[in-house]
């Protein structure tokens, strides 16, 4: 057996014997956990005589059930415009201290438009040179991935795209002035009781639990007040939503309207479809195939 393992076992055994003689139950439990700790397992990184050496009182294993680490993906180089904008962003921020990041980006775009072609070509050449190196590194990176890792990366990319689409939709609805959905009766009760903000996760969980208990003990008359207020707000919200959705349909912002409320008017091509055999658009926006002409008996 390897000398370091012998010394380690000798130390733990002598300490365990002392604990046993002293009769300390806490120390005995601690030593038992140490003796069966994964730190004492012989893993696959140990090579040579140690890997196959017999051990007494220890589990011996030659492999660890650990998934292979995903190789580091090479970072894609910045294109010509982003490279230019990053280079002048600090100077623009110093010259315009009150400007927001969005305003700085707009100022950088204006300067890029006025930049001469020779300077733009210089940034473009730098990008192409780094792009060629990145393509080689990325090809090597992809060749090292397993099928499971590729599937995991694909799933992560899909989740990022879905999250981005939801954020864009939320931003669009906010810009178009969509009415805000009102709170229900219970949330109105919580807001009126002024819950403390800035708490930790556990404290906030306890606070919401206490509010739930207060809500269940609330008298029926008091609870009916919150319910009636919530119903009145919901009725107002539904009326505002109806007006807003009609406005969106009139301004051709159909993507902002709920799908069940989208009733597209018949397209101008629907009239021609009846004559030319084109697909006919129904009143609900659905497309139906044109009816086949009935067979005639008097064929020449």
Automatic annotation (TrEMBL):
GO terms for molecular function: DNA binding. GO terms for biological process: regulation of transcription by RNA polymerase II. Residues 261-300 are annotated as: Disordered. Residues 74-142, 179-245 bind DNA. GO terms for cellular component: nucleus. PANTHER family: HIGH MOBILITY GROUP PROTEIN DSP1, MITOCHONDRIAL TRANSCRIPTION FACTOR A, ISOFORM B. This is HMG box domain-containing protein.
């Amino acid at each position: 057996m390897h000398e370091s393992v012998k010394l380690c076992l000798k130390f733990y055994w002598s300490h365990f014997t002392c604990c046993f003689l002293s009769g300390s139950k806490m120390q005995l439990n601690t030593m038992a956990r140490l003796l069966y700790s994964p730190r004492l397992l012989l893993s696959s990184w140990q090579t040579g005589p140690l890997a196959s050496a017999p051990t007494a009182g220890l589990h011996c294993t030659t492999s660890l059930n650990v998934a292979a680490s995903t190789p580091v993906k090479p970072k894609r180089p910045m294109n010509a415009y982003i490279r230019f904008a990053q280079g002048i962003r600090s100077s623009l921020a110093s010259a315009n201290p009150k400007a927001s990041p969005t305003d700085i980006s707009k100022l950088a775009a204006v300067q890029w438009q006025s930049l001469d072609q020779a300077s733009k070509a210089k940034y473009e050449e730098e990008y192409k040179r780094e792009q060629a190196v990145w393509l080689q590194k990325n090809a090597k990176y992809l060749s090292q991935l397993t099928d499971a890792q590729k599937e995991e990366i694909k799933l992560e990319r899909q989740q990022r795209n879905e999250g981005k689409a939801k954020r864009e939709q939320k931003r669009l609805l906010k810009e178009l002035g969509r009415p805000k959905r009102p709170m229900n009766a219970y949330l109105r009760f919580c807001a009126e009781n002024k819950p403390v903000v800035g708490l930790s996760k556990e404290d906030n969980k306890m606070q919401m639990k206490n509010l739930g208990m207060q809500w269940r003990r609330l008298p029926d008359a008091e609870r009916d007040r919150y319910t009636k207020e919530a119903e009145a707000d919901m009725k107002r919200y539904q009326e505002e939503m109806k007006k807003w959705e009609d406005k969106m349909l009139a301004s051709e912002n159909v993507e902002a309207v709920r799908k069940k409320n989208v009733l597209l008017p018949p397209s101008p091509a629907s009239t021609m479809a009846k004559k030319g055999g084109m697909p006919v658009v129904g009143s609900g926006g659905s497309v139906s195939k044109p009816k086949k002409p009935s067979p005639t008996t008097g064929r020449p």
